[in-house]
Amino acid sequence: MEKKGGFIEWLDRRLAITAVWRIMMSEYYLPKNINFLWSFGVLTMLVFAILVVSGIFLLMYYKPDAKLAFDSVNKTIMMDVAFGWVFRHTHAVAASIMFLVLYIHIARGMYYGSYKAPREVVWITGFLLFVLMSATAFTGYLLPWGQMSYWAAQTITTLFEKIPFIGPDLVIWIRGNYIVADATLTRFFALHVVFLPLLLIVVTAIHLYAVRIVGSNNEDGIPMTKEEKKVKGIPFWPVFMAKEYFVMSVFLLFFFYLVFFNYDFAMDPINFQPANILQTPPHIYPEWYFLAYYEVLRGFFFSQNLGLIAFVASMFIILFMPWLDKSPIVSGKHRPLYKIAFWVFILDFLFLTILGKLPPTGLFAWLGFVGSIVFFLFFAALPIISKIEKSQVERAGR
Amino acid sequence: MADDKMSRRDFLLYAMGGWAAVGVAGVLYAMYKTWEPLPDVKAQATTKFDLSKVKPGQLKVISWRGKPVFILHKTPDMKKCDNRTIAGEYTVVLGICTHLGCIPNWEADKKIWHCPCHGGEYNACGVNIFGPPPRPLEIPPFKLEGKTIVIGEEGPEYKKLMGQA
Predict the structure, then answer these.
(1) What is the rounded distance in angstroms from the CA atom of residue A121 to the CA atom of residue A144?
(2) Contact criterion met (CB below 8 Å) for A186 and A65
(3) pLDDT digits 0-9 by tens, A55-81
(4) A178 interfacial to chain B (CB closer than 8 Å)
(5) Closest C-alpha to A142, from A176, A191, A98
(6) Residue A15 burial by Cβ neighbours in a 10 Å radius (0-12, 13-18, 19+)
(7) Closest partner residue to B118 among A173, A278, A360, by Cβ?
(8) Residues A167 and A290 reside in one and the same domain
(9) Do A292 and A218 sit in the same domain of this protein?
(10) Which of A245, A280, A315 is the endpoint of a domain?
(11) Which of A153, A181, A280, A364 lies in disulfide reach of B103, CB 3.0 to 4.6 Å?
(12) Rounded to a whole number, what is the distance in Å from the CA of A322 to chain B's nearest CA?
């Protein structure tokens, strides 16, 4: 970068690119006591790039019209366009894997206390990215206009009906029709390909910038100033990224193994039937990454309103972790009580995910209820755990 | 405070801000309106159906505003309910589960509607008897012209039913 008198210096005098480069890359230091879980942030960026590129190529043949959409995907892209199937499977698998990577990234943040002060803005923007990514996945899922696409959109838009006063009118407004129809498809298309990705990019920029300001957390949750990290840590570029390239290549092997040999998991067989407004599929379920929240919705099987409130709460409560958990100890590595709660939460999330796919009858309905309660108990336990830890720390300090 | 004279700069700032707010409100309103159903959707006409085409014990599904309407010709062994019976022997309900909008299936052997999504059940009157549905299947606005039902218009029979319920 420091070639004197070259093009870079010419540009630097006009654009100050070396200053930006230093802040974002070469003088952004990471602690050494981090593990491979810290590589998942960059992996989400990689998957996002894959989604954008594969999406652009799908866009060249996709038709956002209720009459044409299904065939444009299942015939034109899958059969006629050379390598069209690669782009479709890449896009579908990447959408699924995005949530796997995202969940691991979030869980790492939860376990090591990366949401705590002073990283609240990182946590909030990260949460926003999760919500935006969910919205992108949901709107994108309608586009192939298959049976599962259609009924997922129908079911989820119906949820808005329960909002007091404006609900029923709001649903018609969102759909542009009394039912999910052509107008819904085209507007979801616009949101999926332009509006939401644009917001995702903007919030990602803020997220990355915020991490540069407060610095990365570490396994032990030890606060380190930039000067300390300069001596004890490693620069993001080139040292961290050199390691990251290795993780990326392993990840891409796994990713393209899925794309070429195991793409089925991201494709529901029911979705290969065109949308039929008069025929609900026998069993409706969302993609795997929404199953846990869906199970919370169904878990309160005896009260629809309660289920709905719980469903919304289950998606948003994680935003409040920095304020629910005020414990002075940052990392879960040094918090025996929190460690237990965390792993119970993770197991419960997996449990709800599995239950979400099963029919909601008999014993499953009750298990779903118990699972939903445990989900919220984790967040209810946070203030109690931090209170206990606070008194322990005070006693130790005396 | 009251004596403070508004400076020229303040005035310009408020005037510009106010004018910009009007502009933003106008743009938002226009954006909001673009998402409303188009005129041809709003103008979707009423649906007419000849009830006598349904044999006793039979269920017909017709479409109104893109939504399914169940027309069941009831038999004496089915659940009775005067406040939900139309033309003496028919159940006419919107075929949309009041839980989350799925379409329940008629199970002729049990004489109930069963919703495949979350397991809700309705009896032959369309009244919820099991599961998450919070209320009975909705009766669409209708008018009777002899044995023909016009769905989408409020006739005296509809108003009478609503008054009873």
Answers:
(1) 36
(2) yes
(3) 999 999 999 999 999 999 999 999 999
(4) yes
(5) A191
(6) exposed
(7) A360
(8) no
(9) no
(10) A280
(11) A280
(12) 34
